[in-house]
Specification:
17% helix, 6-stranded antiparallel sheet, Thiol Ester Dehydrase, Chain A, alpha+beta, single chain
């Protein structure tokens, strides 16, 4: 089992608090699949307005966590060719949201490469709370080294 802790994630993708939205990579198959975890906590800033008295993890933030996981798929394939943290540019997104996550949930994000090339890729991503599918997306992204 391959694991990447938070400190390692910050060496792979450029996002930082409050937009670093994955806490740990719990497994990966280089260039093929990455499984990451997002722990949803009540003290996250966006819960102030989304929604007062009924906090729901925003779909835009979930999509961002899915995109960040997809960037790690790219990194695991090309890490030996990278000299720094590249810029990832999200392109086309086809997403479907099925259920929501709330404080106390742990979101498991599974990103599977459809095609990853030196200049970008296409990744199928699914997010789960427990065994319940909460979102799925097809993400296309470009990479500027």
């Amino acid at each position: 089992m391959n694991v990447i802790e938070l400190q390692g994630i910050t060496k792979i993708i450029p996002q930082r608090f409050p937009f670093l939205l994955i806490d740990k990579v719990i497994d990966f198959d280089p260039g093929k699949k990455v499984v990451a975890i997002k722990n949803v906590t009540a003290n996250e800033e966006f819960f102030i307005g989304h929604f007062p008295g009924n906090p729901i993890f925003p779909g835009a933030m979930l999509l961002e966590a899915m995109a960040q996981t997809s960037c790690i798929v790219y990194h695991t394939k090309y890490q030996n060719e990278l000299t720094g943290i590249p810029t990832y540019i999200l392109g086309s997104v086809k997403a479907s949201f099925k259920h929501f996550a709330v404080p106390g949930d742990q979101i498991r994000i599974e990103a599977v490469a459809v095609k990853v090339i030196p200049t970008g890729g296409c990744v199928d991503v699914k997010s789960f709370v427990g065994e319940k599918l909460i979102a799925e997306a097809e993400l296309f992204f470009a990479v500027k080294k």
